[in-house]
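Example record

The entry below shows one chain as it appears in the dataset: sequence first, then structure tokens.
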Amino acid sequence: MENLKFYLLTDTHYFEESLGAEGKAYEEYMKTEAFYLKESSTINKAVFNKLKEDKETEIIIIPGDLSKDGEYESHKSLIKELNDLKEAGKKIFVLTAGHDYNEYGRGYKNDEFVKSKGTEFKELYDLYYEFGYKDALSVDKETLSYVAQISENTRILALNCDSNKETKGTIDERLLLWSKEQLADAKKNNAYVIAMCHYPVIPSVPVFDLVGDAHVKNWREIATFLADNGVELVLTGHMHIQSINEFVTEKGNKLYDICTATTVGTPGKYRKIEISETGEMNVKSIPVCDFSIPDKFNSCEEFFDWRFKYSVKNKINKILEGGNGAVKILKKIGKKVLNSIKLKTLAGFLFIKIDKSLKNVKLMDFAGEIATAIFKGDMPYTDGTPEYDAISKALKRLGFILKKVEPKLSKNGVEVDLTDMLLNTIGNNKGYSDNNAVINLKG
């Protein structure tokens, strides 16, 4: 294995601001959007400027969702920025995903939603030709997957599992056969292979195993295929989360999945990864903070967290709106209760005791804090913390319900233990950080 270092950023969701980001329709849309739209170009440009400053690291890898929603003008603006990076000496390898192609683009002007030119999937090859396809050893034109030499002895296998909105998150048998041929050729030429895929191959947190759109379909099969064919590392995005996970096959081969958050929403991070000749991989997460934020926020972290929590709360409230007759009345009552109930009331209802530090916390605020912590990685709510103990007691009290649900969630011989799954989602017990870690690869 050779010394290798590169930057990893993903889900840039670049938006060309001239398409429109103002007015009543925009404000209404942003109530439930978890990441920033109007500010995305400014935030991403700040990241790109930081990358230019590092004269010793040439390689930049971006695993998909390059644009906000496939706006053609967003792509053109982003490509201009990528060309600037290229002129600064960077070698850039991108992968496209579902947010990069659409029938039409979107913008907001004069209080209305405005359509703009969209991007067809088949156009993406030419648009991003300079950033992976030009140097590709092989391209699967049907999915725009490719394999390229990124350094003297290392190749990247870019697997596009999001080339069709009807089968998003899928790596089918045909693509696996193509991939197997590429991995065999790499082995023949003594090349080390790193993979990238927009969707996580390994669920970022245990509970995401139950969410179909949170990982590639048949993820255990795909993880096994990669690991057993010599791939130790896959770089992913999609879920806007900071996570590092491992999977071990029946043959004892190990795959690490490094999933990285969006640059334009909480937690607002990208990564620098260095792999030594001995196979020691050093993963460092870098905050996105070199841009101006509104005066009402004290830090970039607060700026990002506010949007995330605000959107989650509004999404929940939106579900509890509408309907007719009794349904509408029940939803209205449910919304009022959900937004006002405190944990001490809920604890009393479940006949459990919770730490006094949590008693006056509103349920919605508590849920927002837990969700934010999960997406930041290194989930702090481990055994012994007030939050863990409260959730553990609640799950134990609701155990009879969970036991009835678990058999319905268990599939393909994999049994689901909801209590264990949820507790290991809110607390990181892996033994290494989701943000900054040192991991030994075999090489």
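Notes for this example: The radius of gyration is 23 Å. The chain has two domains: 4-292+435-440, 300-426.
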